[in-house]
Amino acid sequence: MKLDEDRCYRAVNSKDARFDGVFYTAVTSTGIYCRPSCPARTPKRENVRFYATAAAAHDAGFRACRRCRPDAAPGSPEWDVRADTVGRAMRLIRDGVVESDGVPGLAERLGYSTRHVHRLLADEVGAGPLAIARSNRAHHARILLETTGLPVTDVAFASGFASVRQFNDTLRTVYDSTPSGLRAASRRRSPRSRPTAAPSGAITLRLAVRKPFAYDGLLRFLEARAVPGVEVVRDGTYARTLRLPHGEGVVALTPAPDHVACVLELSDLRDTMAAVNRCRALLDLDADPVAIDEVLGDDPALSTAVSTTPGVRVPGHVDGYELAVRAVVGQQVSVAGARTTLGRIVRERGTALVPELHPLAAAYALSHVFPEPEALAAADPAGLGMPRSRGATVVGVADAVAVGKLDLTPSADREALREELLRLRGIGPWTADYVLMRATRDPDVLLATDLVIGRRLQALGLTPSRTTDPTLRWSPWRSYAAMHLWNLPDRPASERQP
User: Fold this and answer.
1) Which end of the chain offers a freer environment for a tag, N or C, measured as fewer CB atoms within 10 Å?
2) Which residues form the HTH araC/xylS-type domain (predicted)?
3) Rounded to whole angstroms, what are the CA distances from 169 to 100, 164, 174?
């Protein structure tokens, strides 16, 4: 990703927080790198270098600024926008593929040699896959050290390090500090800040967001679709169970204008990074709302909606497989009807939680984890409480995931996934696009075949045709335009969001 250095320096000179996490500023005279909004005096232009990732700054020999903590900013939205190999690679690394499968596993998923993947990333983001993964682990470790009371050894393994020695060496390289030094410095900066009280065995985190953050709409969206026993919205908090690589988990998320309070209860601390990444995806925390609103707000068709509700997010999901099943179950039925059917499927085929082992789940009356793909793949379509044809589609989706034919993770090849979904009997363009929008976080899916959105576009005189598509002026943010269109006022009561 080639950076416009003059534009970057103007952002640094104006302390523009909109660019925090989008690029990093390294100062040759001090040997540190900062976020663009760092409150320190603006360095001379000749002493500044710009990097697309924190990993690139680390690789160039710079250490993170202790004052502005550049790695604590939300992640760059660039990697969710891009559908190319580099974008997929960055999403795969963020999802922990390097830790689980190594660089060869990353290269295999991308369909290239390890050398080619390393060259692509080095050219585009300034660092190879190992360096990027190391930077991600260090960033995650710092969050845990500063916001939780976990023992240092637990932090090391929860952050994906293979040993405490590797953990210590990495923090010394990246931050020029020891784990205990980072924790002590955090306490000195905020002497009243201590780990928030949580149920026994749970950890608390503070997830960064970019403002503005229209979280009320997110909570309403999630509450309307909450599956009994799996998720609930209560008193401004969204809580749900999680199906994670090493076991079950429970999370409670309480959004605020400038952050999200996160309480995690995990059966295995190795799942901490995966759980945090899924929560960030669910609430779309790495979005760039200012950039999105600038594009959509400039259009008279959406300007009022954007000015009324700035910072709209597109709800993602914690599990693409679960989302795909829910999308199929919800075909041609009301939201309430889909919830009832899904609740019954969960009770009959999901994994029951033991309340004594999961006090956070018990506190929110959560009883089950969504069924494993193998459990639904083995089900009789006629026994799922819906038309047999739709039940067969649910079984088909679950089977495709179980055998590894269908990749529904955020790092999936979006074009290939859409084609694979459309090959499954019972899945049409609307369902495929809805899954892409929420499971892969594709920011540019309009869902023009949706009944409500189609009516909105027709009323605005923007209906796409075979030769023209006036909605292209909203690219690459048409998923956000869809959220605004769904939420336009004065629509008939019979109209509903999916």
Assistant:
1) N
2) 87-185
3) 21, 9, 9
Q: Is residue 449 part of a domain?
A: no
The backbone region for 140, taken as left when phi is positive above 0, alpha when psi lies in -120 to 50, beta otherwise, is: alpha
- Return the pLDDT at 22: 86
Residue 129 resides in a domain: yes
420: amino acid identity, one letter? E
43 lies in the same domain as 115: no
Question: 203, 211 in Cβ contact below 8 A?
Answer: no
Residue 451 lies in a domain: no
From the candidates 8, 34, 38, 262, which is the catalytic residue?
34
Give the pLDDT of residue 146: 87
Q: Same domain, yes or no, for 59 and 139?
A: no
Q: Are residues 338 and 361 in the same domain?
A: yes
Residue 281 CB contacts under 8 Å (≥ 6 apart), including other chains: 316, 317, 318, 410, 441
At residue 251, the 3 state secondary structure works out as strand
Residue 285 and residue 311: Cα distance in Å, rounded? Answer: 11
> Is 47 among the domain residues?
yes
Question: What residues contact 92, with CB distance under 8 A and at least 6 apart?
Answer: 98, 106, 109, 110, 411
Same domain? For 433 and 325 the reply is: yes
Burial class (CB in 10 A: 0-12, 13-18, 19+), 464: middle
| 433 shares a domain with 329 | yes
Pair (98, 52) in one structural domain: no
> Has 262 been annotated as catalytic?
no
Low-confidence ranges of the chain (pLDDT < 70): 1, 190-200, 489-498
Whether the pTM exceeds 0.85: the reply is: yes
Q: What is the CATH classification number for the domain harbouring 404?
A: 1.10.340.30
| Distance separating the N- and C-terminal Cα atoms of the chain | 35
Q: DSSP H helical segments within 159-315, as ranges?
A: 164-175, 179-189, 215-224, 272-282, 289-297, 303-308
Distance CA 299, CA 432 (A): 27
Which letter does DSSP use for residue 338 in this model?
Answer: H
Q: Which strands, in side-by-side order, build the sheet including 32-34?
A: 48-51, 24-27, 32-34, 63-64
135: CATH: 1.10.10.60
The per-residue pLDDT for 16 is 82
| Dihedral in degrees, nearest 10, Cα atoms 297, 303, 309, 315 | -60
The DSSP code for 27 is E
Query: Closest Cα to residue 321, out of 423, 244, 221?
Result: 244
| Unique residue bearing structure tokens 């690589």 | 245
237 phi/psi in degrees, rounded to 5 = -120, 135
| CA-wise closest residue to 335 among 126, 146, 156, 494 | 494
Query: For residue 185, what pLDDT is reported?
Result: 85
Catalytic annotation present for 450:
yes
